[in-house]
Structure formats: structure tokens, C-alpha cells
Write a structure and sequence with these properties.
Elements lengths: L2 E8 L4 H15 L2 E7 L8 E9 L10 E6 L2 H7 L3 E8 L7 H12 L3 H8 L5 H14 L17 E4 H11 L4 E4 L6 H11 L7 E4 L3 H13 L4 E5 L1 H17 L3 E7 L16 H6 L8 E3 L4 H18 L2 E7 H5 L1 E4 L33 H22 L5 E5 L5 E6 L2 H11 L5 E5 L1 E3 L5 H7 L2 E6 L5 H10 L8 E3 L8 H12 L1
Parallel strand pairs: 1-4, 4-5, 7-8, 7-9, 9-10, 10-12, 11-12, 15-16, 15-18, 18-19
Antiparallel strand pairs: 1-3, 2-3, 2-13, 6-13, 11-17, 14-16
Length: about 500
């Protein structure tokens, strides 16, 4: 059984801080938790809300129906009342209360020990004031959700998001320079790495520049000097970076780019989520050159694949694109283990001669046909070496019943909703999660051929992964077998379970 809480209000009223202390409390008490943020592209005034889903079992996504609705303003109930369960609890007051009053009341409703909340509040400012309000909310509340208690506390669990995983993976990979121009939903990586930069033993610098063009060129420059460098952006910013991406391919400069997608075209839905930039990551840039494109599905994979991204970038002097989205970047979930980190050796140890034109080994621009063809053949050979090296890593994962003839395919942040849908819907299927999109794991053709029924789940309108599968393997997935959502929102696991079962009939 999973339980769902929505905490809503205007931007600045405190949905985030209330959600954070409650979710951390649930995890400390032994529950698994997942929460996602939804907010309009406004500084203040728009309706913002967080959906917190928790359970005694692994929880990686949200559900659509609400057990508890926390109304920090009058508008919240109006917006969400149609999704309330029959016996849902609505937490609201005639007069506005302090944020921690709501937090205290939630702890009472959830049957959580107040001491856990007290420990959470010690991490914040204004401890005495917050404690006073929290105790009042806790003592005044009489309702209870009546949920089963965990047997043990999860003291080793961490509640983090994909951006935190990206940051941790970069640091553990020896990051020295991170460049960025703020662009949701990649901006928090810049902020997190900036906070880490203040720590005593930090060995990296975070530099905010005036544009995405400046960002990618600065990253290339740092790499040319032998530094381990990375940059981050979203789709519109990545558009501006593509000339620098092409230069990285031509001059064979190691560079890691974090592309955190949001719905487009252009500015699109600036604060919502999409998997619409897969084609952008695969095919951007002019000319033909090698690249690696990898897509983590959760916070742990974000750390591990960032590390692998640095590995490929340095070993093969090639651009690497880490592909994510807002749902991955900002949604927090439980991580139970530390990421697996591999050692990386720099391919550039000092400043070398590079040239954005076709050039010889000395870095001097050339135009003769023989050297041009020779260089292309050499780069093509490196591309084959990258593909062979990638096979040493987990390019895809198989979840669920590995003997099932029903196959569900997904990538990136759809992982959580698919896994929860399969579990809660008691769906007999195996889930093929593709991690490496370039080079592509063509071995998945064996899984495709064995399946009687195939469904693909994507957060885009054109099923970009199915097009890639067709290009790489020749296998065509019919339109009737594509489950697509492209309204800027992530899949709800309960709705997805029903849709999967309907399509499998």
C-alpha cells in the first residue's frame, strides 16, 4: 500500500520546507519515500505543490489519488479536490498557520515520533520558534491515517535527487571545474557544487558565466589545459552549445555535458519535465564525430553514470552527454547504497595543440584529401573502440520477471513509474531499461525477438526511443504499443499500471 500527500500553496509559502521535514521524518522512521515538485514559472503567486508518496516497500514514483491534502492556501483544495480519496484527510485552517504548525500536525496524522521532527528542526534556523509551532500543531491534531509501522528505522538511507547524484558523481570523478549559466532544471547542480566548493577539502571550482556559449568554450579551454571539466544546461542552452560540441568532436577534447531536458520547443514549459531532447543529444552538431549519450533512471544511477561519463570522455577524448529531465533532476527518492566509482586517468596532462579545423597531428590546419580521409577513418576506429569498451559496463538492465514474454521498454526517469506500476499492478512482464543510448546496445534485439508483447513508455510525443531502436536494430514498435505522455508531467504509477494492463489484453 502506498500513501500520497500533496502539500500545496503559493510560491514562498513553504511547501518545500514542509515536504522536506516530513519526507525526511518518514525515511528516518523506516519508510521508503519519493517526492516531486510542481511549480509554475513564477517567482511568487503561482500554485506550487509537492506530491509525497511513501510506503513500507521501495517507492520510486507518485500516484494520482490523495490520502492527505495539506492546504497552505485556499486555492490548494480547489485545485486538487477531485483527486481526493473517499476518506482523505484535508489539513487546513481558517486562519493561516506557520509552516511548522502544518509539519507538526502531519507528524501526528502519520503517527511519527515528534522527536524525529525535533531532530529535523535542529538543522534549520529559528529552532525555538519552529519547535513551539510544531508542538502546537502536533498537540492540537487529533486525526490519524492509521498506517502500518515499519519494523526498523532506515538509518543508512539517504533521500536525494538526480541533481545531487550528478554532483556527487562529478566530485568522486575528480571534477576540477564546473561551468554553468542558470537554466532550470540543471541549475541546482551549479548550486550544490557551489556549496560543496565551500568545504575545507574541496578541489573544484564552480564558475557562472554570461551565456551557454561562454560556458561550453570555457569547459573546452579547461580541458585543453588538462583539467577535468564539466558543464550543465537544459535544451535551449544546449542548442547554443552545439558549435562547441562539434569542436570537441573535431579537436578530440574530453568534455562532459549535463543536459537536463524540459518541454520545448524554445522556452516551452520552463519548469516542467520532458524526454523530448533524446534526438537533440544524439544528433546535434555539424559534421560527423563520436559521442557518448547515457541516461540515468534514478539518483544512484546519476552518480554512477556521471562517473562513467568522465571515464569515457577522458579515455577516448570525446564529448559525453548525460541526459536527464526535471523529474529525475528534482524528485527525491531513497538511496540505500553508495555509488560504484571507477578510476579515471586524464588523457590530457598538459596544454596541447588543437584545431577546430581539420588538422594534422601537430595541430596545423590542413585541407588535403588524403589526411582528411585518414583522420575520419581514425575517428571512426575510435568510435568502434568506444562501442567495445561500453560493453564492459551495464548498458541496459532487465527488471521484473526475466522469463516473461511481455516486455516493457523505457529509459531515464520513467524507470520509477514503470517499476512501481509493475509491482502494484501485479503485472507479469520484464522491464528493459536502456542506459546507453550512444553507443546503442544492439544486443537488446534478442530481448525484442523473444517477446510476444512489447510496450514502450516515454515522456515525449514522438517516441524517440522507438525510432532509435528501429534505426539501430531494424525492429519496429507499432504505434498502438507506445504509451506516451507529453504534457510536462511525469507518469503516475497507478494510472500507468492500468494503461499497461489495458494494452496487454
Amino acid at each position: 500500500m502506498r500513501f500520497n500527500i500533496i502539500i500545496g500553496g503559493k510560491a514562498g509559502q513553504g511547501p518545500n520546507i514542509v515536504t522536506e521535514v516530513v519526507s525526511q521524518g518518514l525515511v528516518s522512521a523506516g519508510y521508503h519515500a519519493f517526492y516531486a515538485r510542481e511549480y509554475e514559472s513564477l517567482i511568487r503567486g503561482g500554485h506550487n505543490y509537492n506530491t509525497l508518496t511513501f510506503s513500507l516497500i521501495a517507492t520510486r514514483s507518485n500516484q494520482s489519488k490523495i490520502d492527505i491534502l495539506v492546504c497552505l492556501d485556499d486555492n490548494t483544495e480547489k485545485v486538487h479536490k477531485e483527486n481526493l480519496k473517499k476518506n482523505a484527510i484535508v489539513l487546513k485552517y481558517k486562519e493561516p498557520k506557520e509552516n511548522m504548525h502544518y509539519a507538526g500536525a502531519l507528524y501526528k496524522i502519520l503517527g511519527l515520533d515528534f522527536r524525529i521532527l525535533e531532530n529535523q528542526l535542529r538543522k534549520l534556523k529559528n529552532l525555538d520558534e519552529n519547535l513551539r509551532e510544531a508542538r502546537k500543531g502536533f498537540n492540537d491534531e487529533t486525526r490519524s491515517l492509521g498506517i502500518e509501522k515499519p519494523q526498523n528505522s532506515n538509518t543508512g538511507f539517504k533521500l536525494i535527487n538526480g541533481n545531487h547524484g550528478i554532483s556527487e558523481g562529478a566530485i568522486k570523478s575528480g571534477l576540477q571545474y564546473y561551468y554553468s549559466y542558470p537554466m532550470t532544471p540543471a541549475t541546482p547542480v551549479m548550486m550544490m557544487l557551489g556549496d560543496m566548493m565551500m568545504e575545507k577539502d574541496a578541489k573544484h571550482k564552480v564558475i557562472e558565466l554570461e551565456s551557454e556559449i561562454a560556458v561550453v568554450i570555457a569547459t573546452l579551454g579547461s580541458s585543453l589545459m588538462g583539467a577535468r571539466a564539466m558543464c550543465g544546461t537544459s535544451g535551449g542552452g544546449f542548442d547554443l552549445m552545439t558549435e562547441g560540441l562539434s569542436m570537441a568532436g573535431q579537436a578530440e577534447i574530453p568534455i562532459v555535458i549535463y543536459l537536463s531536458s524540459r518541454p520545448g520547443p524554445s522556452t516551452g514549459l520552463a519548469t516542467y519535465s520532458s524526454q523530448g531532447d533524446l534526438d537533440l543529444a544524439l544528433y546535434s552538431g555539424h559534421g560527423e564525430f563520436n559521442r557518448v549519450v547515457i541516461a540515468p533512471g534514478d539518483a544512484l544511477e546519476s552518480a554512477e553514470l556521471t562517473n562513467q561519463g568522465f571515464y569515457f570522455s577522458q579515455k577516448f577524448r570525446t564529448p559525453v552527454i548525460l541526459l536527464g529531465d526535471k523529474n529525475l533532476a528534482e524528485s527525491k527518492s531513497v538511496v540505500e547504497t553508495e555509488p560504484k566509482i571507477i578510476e579515471i586517468i586524464n588523457s590530457i596532462t598538459s596544454m596541447e595543440k588543437f584545431n577546430s579545423y581539420e588538422h594534422n597531428e601537430a595541430g596545423i590546419a590542413i585541407e588535403d584529401a588524403e589526411t582528411t580521409a585518414k583522420n575520419f577513418d581514425r575517428r571512426a576506429k575510435i568510435g568502434k573502440e568506444i562501442a567495445r569498451e561500453a560493453q564492459k559496463f551495464e548498458m541496459y538492465k532487465i527488471h521484473g520477471n526475466k522469463n516473461s514474454k511481455n516486455l516493457i521498454i523505457g529509459w531515464g526517469s520513467t524507470k520509477g513509474a514503470i517499476l512501481d506500476a509493475m509491482h502494484d499492478g501485479n503485472i507479469d512482464a520484464k522491464f528493459l531499461q536502456i542506459l546507453y543510448l550512444e553507443p546503442f546496445p544492439e544486443k537488446i534485439l534478442d530481448e525484442l525477438k523473444k517477446a510476444n508483447k512489447i510496450l514502450i513508455v516515454e515522456n515525449n510525443a514522438t517516441s524517440q526511443l522507438s525510432k532509435l531502436i528501429a534505426t539501430k536494430t531494424g525492429f519496429i514498435i507499432e504505434d498502438k504499443n507506445k504509451i506516451l505522455r507529453y504534457d510536462g508531467r511525469a507518469f503516475f504509477s497507478d494510472e500507468l499500471a492500468e494503461e499497461i494492463k489495458r494494452r496487454m489484453r
